[in-house]
Design a protein that fits this description.
By secondary structure, the protein is mainly alpha-helical. The protein contains 18 helices and 3 strands. Strands 1-2-3 form a 3-stranded mixed sheet. The longest helix is centred in the C-terminal third of the chain and has 23 residues, at about 330-350. The N and C termini lie far apart (about 90 Å). Mean pLDDT is about 85; it is low at about 250-255 and about 255-275.
């Protein structure tokens, strides 16, 4: 008759399911968190089982010693123990961050997308590279963009949307220029019950919220979408040449917000005006438009130097000298160049590049 090492050596009753769980195996109370007690029980049982290591039960002894060691290592590792306890039905108090929100990585763990051991790896990876936890789990290929975006929406307490299933309203799209949506990677959707909904990859910055509140005259509410879907939507609704400028007409505010919107318009009349491409702020331009404006500015500065010195350039041409053309002296040309070049340089650096 084969030996029952659990019963004969450890005293575990036959009524206990085989193989026993880690707590039953180490003869400690279920969900015991005392590491010293767990290790003490392990050492006592380990010494007892080693008595059979040299007899006819040497194989069974070695297998049970390995089993005891694995159980002890699991129950003395906080992260592994928590995963193991949860698999046995233990419920832990929900942990929240400083803002009372469930941490992003813990959401992935509760959804079964991440283990606690992987959580530590992600935190180390993100810290070493200066990444957000969301970008870290994606770069480590632990979850895809959609899963990460859904977890982030739960963390922030915002809705998650599939932009492929939504059609933004033209009135909302027209109120902001292409350069602004590209700079902040967001997409205005529509005004719903007096609130502007925008799709973002993360919680919007306060600066962006303030600007949109002035443009639309209503509060802003963000929803989360994947970066790829937002960029595709921007390419579709803000293609080059489309919506380069914001239209004059603003989204109509609800009656309850009429006075507030009117006051905002009175304080910021420039918001109502149609901003031309030449008068757009440099920081609101796209990368390509900023580079183009820099090139034009450098050309202006160069011509501000060349034009006053043009007579001296012509003087170096022999046929013109033979024609007897009156050529001013070098001193006169320099006197002309300095104020002209200075004025052009000031305009480019203080106005055109601003």
């Amino acid at each position: 008759m084969p030996i029952d090492v659990y019963k004969d050596w450890l005293g575990i009753p036959e009524s206990v399911e085989r193989p026993p769980d880690h707590y039953q195996l180490l003869r400690v109370a279920m969900f015991d968190d005392d590491v010293d007690r767990i290790q003490a029980h392990y050492k006592k049982l380990n010494n007892h089982v080693r008595k059979y290591a040299t007899g006819q039960y040497s194989v069974q002894s070695q297998e049970l010693l390995n089993e005891l060691a694995k159980a002890m290592l699991c129950l003395t590792d906080p992260d592994r123990k928590r995963d193991y306890d949860e698999s046995l039905g233990r419920e832990f108090e929900v942990e929240t961050d400083a803002h009372g929100r469930l941490p992003f990585l813990d959401i992935l763990i509760s959804d079964g997308q991440l283990s606690r051991e992987q959580k530590r790896e992600v935190e180390s990876f993100a810290s070493a590279r200066g990444l957000s936890e969301r970008d870290a789990v994606i770069q480590m290929k632990l979850v895809n963009h959609t899963t990460a975006a859904k977890a982030l929406s739960k963390h922030l307490g915002l809705s998650y949307v599939e932009l492929e299933d939504m059609l933004p309203e033209d009135e909302a799209l027209d109120a902001v220029p292409r350069a602004l949506v590209k700079k902040h990677t967001f997409l205005p959707l529509f005004v719903d019950e007096g609130t502007l909904l925008i799709a973002c990859v993360d919680a919007p910055e306060h600066q962006l919220e303030d600007e949109l509140r002035l443009r639309y005259g209503v509060p802003v509410r963000a929803v989360i979408a994947t970066p790829r879907s937002i960029n595709q939507a921007i390419a579709q609704h803000y293609a080059p040449g489309m919506r380069d400028e914001a239209v004059v007409k603003q989204v109509e505010a609800p009656k309850g917000k009429a006075k507030k919107a009117k006051a905002a318009k009175t304080e910021k009349p420039a918001v109502k005006k149609k901003v031309t491409a030449a008068r757009q702020r440099f920081e609101d331009l796209s990368v390509e438009e900023q580079a183009q404006r820099k090139q034009y500015g450098m050309l202006m500065i160069c011509w501000g130097i060349i034009v006053p010195m043009l007579p001296q350039i012509l003087k170096s041409v022999a046929p013109l000298m033979a024609a007897g053309l009156p050529i001013p002296g070098l001193a006169i040309n320099l006197l002309l160049m300095l104020p002209i070049a200075g004025a052009v340089t000031w305009f480019v650096t203080q106005k055109y590049w601003k």
